[in-house]
Amino acid sequence: MVRKLIALALSAATIGCAAQQPWSFNLGDFLAAKELPYDSPPQVIYRIDDHRFVTLEHYRDCNHGETFYNDTNAGIRSYLGRGTIENFQGHLINADSTGKNLVFPAATAPHTACSDRGCNLPMAYSTDGGENFHSIVYMPNSFDPYQDSKAYTIIATNDSIYINQKLGETTNQTETDRYPMIPGFVYFSKEKLPAGKRIEFDVQAPTGLRTPSGQDHITCDASIRPTNPDAPLNQDRQ
Question: What domain count does the chain have?
Answer without folding.
Answer: 1
